[in-house]
Write a structure and sequence with these properties.
The complex is a heterotrimer of chains A (about 525), B (about 120) and C (about 450). With about 120 residues, chain B is an alpha+beta fold. Chain B has four helices and nine strands, in the order E-E-E-H-E-E-E-E-E-H-H-E-H. In chain B, a hairpin with a 3-residue loop joins strand 6 and strand 7. With about 450 residues, chain C is of the alpha/beta class. Chain C folds into two domains: about 110 residues, Aspartate Aminotransferase, domain 1; about 260 residues, Type I PLP-dependent aspartate aminotransferase-like (Major domain) (Aspartate Aminotransferase, domain 2). Chain C has 13 helices and 13 strands. The chains are: A alpha/beta (about 525), B alpha+beta (about 120), C alpha/beta (about 450). Chains in contact: A-B, A-C, B-C.
């Protein structure tokens, strides 16, 4: 018998008279998800462990007696919990992530496949070297690519992140000075530098002397010379700088610095703009950290892990920390101890084991895929994209510097264009979220007011950029036309609205506690 | 009879007898935003003029507070530990930071009075 | 090129819009002497390759390595082979976790922030402490940061390190201290805690650093050391390199530790030839403001809805700059996620069972190996790792075992090259992955090697 009963198959023209609250608090595919402590239980587990009937126990008095209080989830519950959480995150795979200085480029999936090869992922750092020759070969190969791209003869591979690499590079500089018997006490840092630069210098006991920028946002070699003396250990320069500009006088600065026997540390966060177009070694750099998670596409993973290998000049190479890979007639080996003949004047160790192998594999896969020509093309596209954004927005946004000179891979605007509108840089950023874009970097660098630093990267298509700039233009117009609510009430279309950060800092709640559960149950 | 003065770093200092009370001005607290924490010095600490006396933190910023004059820290505002918002709500009253016993009472003479500070604010705007 | 969406037509149109003649015009600020001209050969490296070719090259390189899963495997000393459920790796590869950034815009990062909050809670519970951060790079750098923190808290400049501390962790602390201008008193290597660490603590000591189980596998009671430290106004820093031990052993927090640093690699992360790993860092509420690293905190939005944000950021370098508690900028993001997912799947029951199975397997192995002529187990109180003495040099034995297809452990001489007295020692680990066949194979091979 056929199905005789039909039903409505087109929407009825009822329209929505406003939001209808749901009973769950969910909104269709947007699902609320409590903490594991609120949904899990100590008896549930998503892992089957085959424990023997009478397991050995020789722990004696140090055996654990108290419970831990951990919740457990079965596999289906765990999948739901984390999949639901994931849907509350913006991601590069979702849309443009124009964060200046972060280089949010596409994370190729070949990288993920490569790093999961058992021969890379399932090897222990302390296995006999004869059993990990391929791993040492990979590190050596990556080191070769980094040295060749930067034009510097040595590289310290072990630092675990960019800031760690900075520390490494500055330690090498201090070690070199100590070896010369010259304990200098000052480090020069431009005003526009990222906070890690002065933090690193201060940690090493240096007094930080600030170098102001000139009107066009770049560093004046005269301003540097005024502050140079034989008590200066180094200058820490970011090039391209944090305003997105190539330092045109970088070689003059390097020369002046070298003349007084000091060193040039380069913050390589912005290397994406220049790879394949120029080599830091040719610009006079003595040490530069490279952020593999920026320039070389290793995934940002919600905040890490990163990797920060540091390329080093001839003068600093002897001081590179342990461990490092050397290539002999018998194959590769690791120099791990100061007692090894090949250790030279290594200043010591930055970390246990050998470095961020997982990021090395990914970065090498990325580099090999691009090749020298592809990397150069990537840098050019990154710079082209940023200049395109600049050209499309400069009449409606406000440029603090350089109306005529090109920017590099990122473009800096300030908040002058919002003056008198009642809309701040922060408000503008939140309105972008409602439009489906992650905001650009805001309030950095500190040298301009209400900074907006946009770095599209080479991964954005022209269509993506066109949509992006068109939307920003409309937002700028809306601000000037007095549509303030759009901004101050944003974001509206996210799982949560603006959060009370004051409360979070004044009354820090940094973990769940059983008492919280009781009070939640009571509500 | 108390004397009230201001510094270019937006601190105020009020002298009553031998003790001076120090805090930050309304302008400073506005610049900082919601104050979340104040790092106060130890009682008994000797400070020179220009030495750091305290650090005040908001969510997004941190700022040193300098001793405008030399002296010995005799009291700190413990109430700020649990209620840092006092700095925002009443910067020149309940939001005071430290009390210093002055070495030299004439040290305030070089500082701006209320009218001079107002003019200073207008100029910098 | 497959990762670059711009076409030649796009580039032309964009240059026109910019008003630039060609791409070189945008690089005008690069000094001519330093330019790698487009007409020259590009930098001397291979040209672009297809996915197929890259995969082929990397597979060949990977194929030259012996993976832990392919052979009987007993290597530990700071990194451990555990079974990671398939769910973990699947989840961390979701786009929204893998390709998300640091949660600076919390409204579009609640996924990341919530799992960090859950992670922080799990770490505090495991270690028996009050508060934990959103992770350090790894256990060793976390250990270095803990020493710096203790120096800030106590305003003293001397650290005392137990002789059972992992030598590479010791090296990290010594390096930081050298450059930071403080002193380190490192006690000589001690296998079973046969050191008088209490006497080494005085009124100049900022902290005492003790690892348990130590690098030789031996368990230590921290209580007497905690007492001595506190009597002298110093802090006790407990180091745990095998986080699974916390499922079977008393937590450092219970025993009086002030700061606990641990390597979280055992859960979710995999061996990965030494990195990336995940450093766990926990302390007492009263030291909160001196703790380095990121923190996720709970709060509410304008409608009273619960949400999470990064908080107490003023300790960090982007605000305090030269006055920051540390220069650390990243945490271990994706590795934190892997850790927290694995631990959520295990739960209390699974985690405790996992720990018991590890200990059980290690006991079985210790009995088997001490049955081999000439082999002595030196550490009577262990969790899943112990030290054996053999009649031949440890490095030789381990190499010979490798040739027979057994990865039998870490010769102490690799970690302490100058401690001649330890040249015949090997640190052996055993986890839940080891089977009876593995133990048979090890025993047989060891017999042959020592014959």
């Amino acid at each position: 018998m056929m199905n005789r009963e039909g039903r409505a198959t087109a929407p009825t023209a009822q329209g929505s008279e406003g939001a209808v609250a749901t009973f769950t608090g969910n909104r269709g595919l947007d699902i609320e998800e409590p903490l594991i402590f609120e949904v899990g239980s100590g008896e549930v587990t998503g892992v089957d462990i085959d424990l023997p009937e009478a397991p050995e126990n020789r722990l004696g008095a140090l055996a654990r007696k108290q419970g831990i209080g951990l919740p457990g989830l079965s596999e289906p519950e765990a999948m739901r919990h984390y999949v639901r959480l994931s849907r509350k995150n913006y991601a590069i795979d979702l849309g443009i992530y124009p964060l200046g200085s972060c280089t949010m480029k596409h994370n190729p999936r070949l990288n993920e496949k490569a790093v999961r090869l058992a021969g890379f992922g399932d090897i222990h750092p302390l296995q006999p070297e004869s059993t990990v020759q391929g791993a040492l070969e990979l590190i050596d190969t990556l080191a070769h690519w980094l040295k060749t791209l930067t034009g510097l003869p040595a590289v310290a591979m072990s630092p675990k992140a960019g800031a760690h690499g900075e520390l490494c590079g500055m330690m090498a500089i201090r070690a070199a000075l100590e070896a010369r018997g010259e304990p200098r006490s000052i480090v020069l840092v431009p005003e526009s530098a990222h906070g890690t630069n002065p933090a690193t210098a201060a940690y090493l006991g240096y007094k930080v002397v600030s170098v102001p920028a000139r009107e066009d946002g770049t560093v004046d070699p005269e301003a540097v010379k005024e502050r140079l003396s034989e008590d200066v250990a180094a200058i820490m320069l970011t090039n391209p700088n944090t305003c997105g500009l190539f330092e045109p006088d970088v070689r003059a600065i390097a020369e002046a610095v070298h003349e007084v026997g000091a060193y040039f540390y380069c913050d390589g966060a912005n290397f994406n703009a220049i790879m394949g177009r120029t080599r830091p070694g040719d610009l006079g750099v003595d040490a530069m950290h490279i952020n593999l998670h920026k320039t070389f596409s290793t995934p940002h993973g919600g905040g890490g892990p990163g990797a920060g290998p540091v390329v080093l000049s001839e003068a600093l190479a002897p001081f590179a920390p342990l461990p490092f890979v050397v290539h002999g007639a018998d194959g590769f080996r690791l120099v791990e101890s100061l007692d090894d003949d090949a250790a030279g004047e290594a200043f010591g160790r930055m970390t246990a084991f050998h470095g961020q192998m997982g990021m090395f594999v990914r970065a090498l896969a990325y580099m090999m895929s691009h090749g020298a020509d592809g990397l150069r093309q990537a840098a050019e596209d990154a710079v082209l994209n940023a200049n395109y954004v600049r050209a499309c927005l400069k009449d409606t946004f406000s440029l603090p510097y350089n109306h005529d000179r090109p920017c590099m891979h990122e473009v800096l605007f300030d908040d002058s264009f919002l003056k008198g509108t009642g809309v701040s840089t922060l408000d503008f950023a939140k309105a972008m979220i409602d439009e489906g874009f992650h905001p650009m970097t805001v309030y950095f660098p500190l040298v301009v007011h209400g900074a907006m630093l946009i770095e599209p990267t080479e991964s954005e298509s022209k269509a993506s950029l066109d949509q992006f700039v068109a939307t920003l233009r409309r937002l700028a117009d809306a601000a000037r036309e007095g549509d303030t609510e759009r901004f101050t009430g944003a974001p509206r279309y996210t799982p949560v609205g603006r959060l009370d950060e004051t409360r979070a800092a004044r009354h820090p709640i940094l973990r769940w506690t059983p008492e919280q559960n009781a009070s939640q149950a009571a509500e | 009879m108390s004397t009230l003065r201001y510094t270019k770093d937006h601190e105020w200092i009020r002298l009553d007898g031998e003790t001076a009370t120090i805090g930050i001005t309304n302008y400073a607290q506005e610049q900082l935003g919601d104050v979340v924490f104040v790092e106060l010095p130890e009682v008994g600490k000797e400070v020179a003029a220009g030495d750091e006396a305290a650090v005040v933190e908001s969510v997004k910023a941190a700022s040193e507070v300098y001793a405008p004059v030399a002296g010995e820290v005799v009291e700190v505002n413990e109430a700020l530990t649990d209620a840092p918002d006092k700095v925002n709500e009443d910067p020149q009253g309940d939001g005071w930071f430290v009390k210093i016993k002055l070495a030299d009472k004439t040290a305030l003479d070089g500082l701006m009075d209320e009218d001079a500070y107002k003019a200073f604010l207008e100029e910098s705007a | 090129m497959r990762y670059l969406p711009l076409t030649e037509a796009d580039r032309k149109a964009m240059l026109k819009r910019i008003g630039a003649k060609d791409i070189d015009a945008l690089f005008v600020d690069v000094p001519p002497e330093a330019r790698l001209d487009s007409s020259d050969r590009p930098v001397d490296l291979p040209r672009r390759r297809s996915e197929l070719e890259v995969e082929r090259t990397l597979t060949r390189m990977a194929g030259r390595n012996v993976s832990a899963g392919a052979v009987p495997f007993f290597v530990g000393a700071g990194a451990y082979k555990h079974h990671v459920p398939a769910t973990v790796d699947h989840l961390i590869q979701r786009s929204e976790f893998l390709t998300a950034y640091t949660p600076y815009q919390p409204e579009v990062s609640q996924g990341t922030l919530q799992y960090l909050f859950e992670f922080q809670t799990q770490v505090a519970l495991l270690t028996g402490m009050e508060v934990a951060n959103a992770s350090m790079y790894d256990g060793s750098t976390g250990c270095g940061e803990a020493v710096l923190m203790a120096e800030r808290v106590t305003k003293r400049r001397k650290a005392v390190l137990s002789g059972g501390l992992h030598p590479q962790y010791r090296a990290v602390v010594e390096n930081l201290s050298h450059f930071g201008g403080s002193t380190v008193h490192a006690l000589p290597p001690a296998i079973n805690g046969e050191e008088d660490i209490v006497s080494a603590i005085d009124s100049e000591t900022a902290c005492v650093v003790v690892q348990t189980p130590n690098v030789y596998g031996s368990l230590t009671d921290l209580e007497p050391i905690a007492r001595a430290a506190h009597e002298n106004g110093a802090l006790l820093i407990a180091v745990v390199t095998e986080v699974v031990s916390l499922g079977a052993v008393r937590s450092p927090g219970e025993m009086g530790a002030d700061i606990v640093v641990a390597e979280g690699q055992s859960l979710g992360v995999g061996l990965s030839f030494g990195g990336p790993y995940v450093g766990l860092f926990a302390t007492r509420e009263k030291f909160l403001r001196q703790m380095p690293g990121r923190l996720a905190g709970e709060t509410v939005d304008g409608e009273g809805k619960r949400g999470y944000v990064l908080t107490l950021s003023t300790r960090e370098q982007h605000i305090r700059r030269e006055r920051a508690t540390s220069n650390i900028c990243t945490n271990s993001g994706l590795c934190c996620l892997a850790f927290t997912i694995h631990l959520s799947l295990l739960g209390e029951k699974g985690f405790r069972d996992l720990a018991r199975l590890n200990h059980h397997n290690a006991c079985l192995l210790a009995d088997r190996l001490s049955g081999v002529k000439g082999v002595e187990v030196l550490t009577p109180a262990f969790f899943n790792e112990f030290t054996i003495r053999t009649p031949k040099p440890g490095a030789e034995v381990v190499e010979a075992l490798a040739e027979k297809g057994i990865l039998g452990g870490v010769p102490v001489s690799r970690l302490e090259p100058t401690a001649d007295a330890f040249g015949d020692l090997i640190v052996v680990a055993s986890t839940e992955v080891n089977t009876d066949e593995d133990r048979d194979a090890y025993q047989t091979a060891l017999k042959e090697v020592l014959a």
